[in-house]
Amino acid sequence: MRLPLLALLARGPAHGYELKQDLEQLLGAAYPQPNVGQIYVTLGRLEKTGLIEGEDVEQEGRPNKKVYHLTEAGREALRVWYDEVSDEPRVRDEFFMKLALAPRTGLADQIALINKQRRQYLNTMRSLSKLAATADRDNRTAQLLIEGAMLHLQADLDWLERCQEELEELE
Predict the structure, then answer these.
(1) How many CB atoms sit inside 10 A of residue 94's CB?
(2) pTM score, two decimals?
(3) How many alpha carbons fall within 13 Å on the CB side of residue 76?
(4) Cβ distance 114 to 163 under 8 Å?
(5) Opening angle at CA 5, ends 3 and 8, nearest 5
(6) How far is residue 70's CA from residue 5's CA, in Å, rounded to a whole number?
(7) Residue 62's beta-bridge partner residues?
(8) Cβ–Cβ < 8 Å for 153, 118
């Protein structure tokens, strides 16, 4: 949760409830939605580590609200996050979050992210192929696990291709 919140703050200051709404709007019902309490706890931790700074803003007739903005250390943490490849494909996976948030931050190009992730998947596929060739042929469970991982990777590669086609059509 911490890096997606940093990514949302890269575009400008916001308070916790705004960030929750941004996540819900961006990800829709397919992604499990965080509760606002979880967001504020995470924001508190990010502030303690110096990745964001909060400022109390007075409101008439309502309690003050705390608006957060990204620090340079937070921006650097995002750059590092965008530079790392994701290991595992899932619906709630880090790569999808990077891809969805990249246009909002201006810190990463979606096509470059797709190409980097594709290379990672292809390298993993090669490693699994080598493993399958040297694995115990009598261990059907191990063979099935390797085959399953390879099929998942192939599906992920197909999905990356589809994402790239969609993004190129939008240009």
Answers:
(1) 17
(2) 0.64
(3) 5
(4) yes
(5) 110
(6) 10
(7) 59
(8) no
